[in-house]
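Page 47, continued from p. 46.
Same chain as before, 883 aa.
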Amino acid sequence: MELKFEQLAYQTDAVNAVVRLFEGQRRESFSLHDAGIELFVGNKLDLDWAQIGENLNNVQKTFGQPETEIGQYGLNFSVEMETGTGKTYVYLRTIFELNRQYGWTKFVIVVPGVPIREGVLQTLRATKNHFAELFNKPVMNFSEYDSKRLGALRNFAVNDGIEIMVIGIQAFYQDRNVINKVNESGDAPIHWIQQTNPIVIIDEPQNMEADVSSKALDSLNPLFTLRYSATHKNSRHKVYSLNPVEAYNQKLVKQIVVQSVLAENDSNGAFVELVEIPPAKGSLKAKLNIHYRGETETKKKTVWVRSGKNGKQGDDLFDKSNGNEAYRHGYIVDGLNFDEQMVAFSNGVQISRADNQDALQDAVMKAQIRCTIDEHLKREKKLKAQGIKVLSLFFIDKVEHYRTADGSAGKFARWFDEIYRELAGEDSDGVHNGYFSQDKQGRLKDTKGDTQADNDTYHLIMRDKETLLSFASPLRFIFSHSALKEGWDNPNVFQICTLNETRSAIKKRQEIGRGLRLAVNQNGERVRDEAVNVLTVIPNESYESFAKNLQQEYEDECGIKFAASNIKDGRKRKTQTFRKNFPLDPEFQAIWQKLDRKPCYRVQYDTAELVKQAADAVCRLPEIHAPKIQTRKAKIEINEAEQEQAYQLEAKETASGSLKTETVFAIPDILGEIQSKTGLTRRTVFDILKASKRLNDAANNPQRFIDLAAEKINRCLHALMSEGIVYELTDNEQYRQELLRNLQKMESEGEEFYFDERTTFTVQNGQKTIAENYIPLDSETEQKFAADCENYENVSLYFKLPRWFKIPTPLGNYNPDWAVVKQNGEKAYFVAETKNTGQGIQGGVDEDKLRDEEQLKIRCARACFEKVKEVGYRVVKKAGELE
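Result:
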């Protein structure tokens, strides 16, 4: 299978946010520079900091980011994108766009470790054909830095096509690294990179904030640096942000369901769980969970204990448990080991963080496997017909629990086989397997995620990514070590189960990140159905605890409040049922038959008016200045360092300025460039520029003139398009039958949803709507609207329009909220959009307060329903406003 890549608006925005930083930079054909020994091809920047700073603030205004002074962080720029939204794709596409716009060819991608490096290389392979088609097949070569193949650095420097090098920070952050050692030529190999002034792209920069890493990044001599992460620790000139809440709300990643599996009333026996042994200057102490004997019942409780010292006896769990008889004999703390995180008792029992003394622990984990398989099979039954393969992922903390040292099945594999045969009615041959690291003898082992063995495991996971998505592979359940927690994912992971014997130490964002991406079908196409894209997490903790921890991570790492309502409780999953034979109800048919004609649109606008408005906008552009040469003056100081017999060299900047150039630029095809950016005819572009009387300014800085003029023209064009849309409704029998089949499917199968007391409306009078039990809604305003419709005597029928009922618009499909039939002497039919813009002077909805996109879609809907004479389209807050 080959994954298909789409052109998505938010990804294009993230690309443009970076590209626009350098508006006014002329496009360089490749030029050769003398390195003393041979020629190399390097990047060159003509703009001074003042111009880049002006561009920076314009970009920050456009994308709603805080404005920063260019001198604050220099040429370092940050892009924030939530996990699963295509961060790697975005910065790779930015590379190609920077090459197309400005001719830059040398790019270095710096990664913090093995898993992310493997992910980047896999994405480079997967997108190669996509970018070749999108950018007219530019010459592009990508490579992974290898200290054993230093000749590749020379190729990077001298080749004139797009060169992309992927390198780990550990490969060049110390003087003893091979790349930094001076060879017989008198230069270190890193000199090949430095002389090209590469554009440096840092993936996950929060992992490279130490001084040693910062100095290493500076040693690459970057033209400028781009920093991409979902969790910036120190953001520098942020130009674009798509945070977790925005990604969830825009349905750009899967929604999350948490299905907890916990033991209840589990207070039997001598339960001991080691939570932690923190570092200490004095004597160690351990934090334990035990069964505490309360006045009315025995419950789990957290206690601190110490071991014996100077002949004194250690803490006794019998005392700590308030006299629980299970601990009477032998549960005196005999020793604590910080390095191994282990506590030893007088009876010989040893408890580490990797296990605990809980009689029901195996039963809990076996139940987790059952829940995962059951959920998987249900999803598979629904999605297989749509060409979507369902995958489930198990994280485990001990390889031997899945496969023992002699290759036989561990307890997790045995449990899986048993439960799968029971639930699926067939053997589990080939449906599950494990991705684990191995030692040199080929034996599976537990690791920390950053060893050479893990390198091989990541490579295998990445290599098999597309294979796992195909029905041709029977593998559907994947077991992986919990250490392999980042840098890889699969879009068709729909269930993630954490089978750790203690509370999972994996961060929640890492845990869900393996399955956040939207699913793909057998054609490699992304599926954007909200009902499909649901990730179910089966953790070894409660739903409330999982949600709380995830929210805290978003607050700590992103500086935002993460609404817990965005995580759905699996226990609140319900099915909305519908009244039997409702499609045949005469009242329903009366309004539905007015809505079942297929809408299509065309856009009309007055070209002369466009020329007039756009010419005026271009005329009012600020003065177009010629590029300047930037100068920077620095004082070199050599001082004694703190260490004896050592010195420190520093370059302190003392002045900066710029010089005008007398360069005569070759004028590009200005009409053609603006035509490609706007989609207008060459003649219309000419008329606009001629009427603007600013065409002569292009000689000063052709590219900046093109960029600014195209931006102004597009703004005017979009405004006119939104005013000139015209709809036609056609009697399309195939379209009608498709709608009817969807209605019949609703009636027979119902629709799954997640119950929210604040927004879900419980139906009391089923004869006034098509739903039988519930109407899942998006807001309290909609809930109040539904309640009013049910209570108003003059409303004979109301129902929420299905999410598949859509009206096409230039901004994408639009799904109206309600269909309502009222008895006002005679029947009146309405399609209603419910909005709440607060309490205004005149009441109702103040549409000027809505987002621009909402206003445009509403304007389009009005134009569409003007063609349906019998139905009134209204934007209202309350049902009583339908008149």
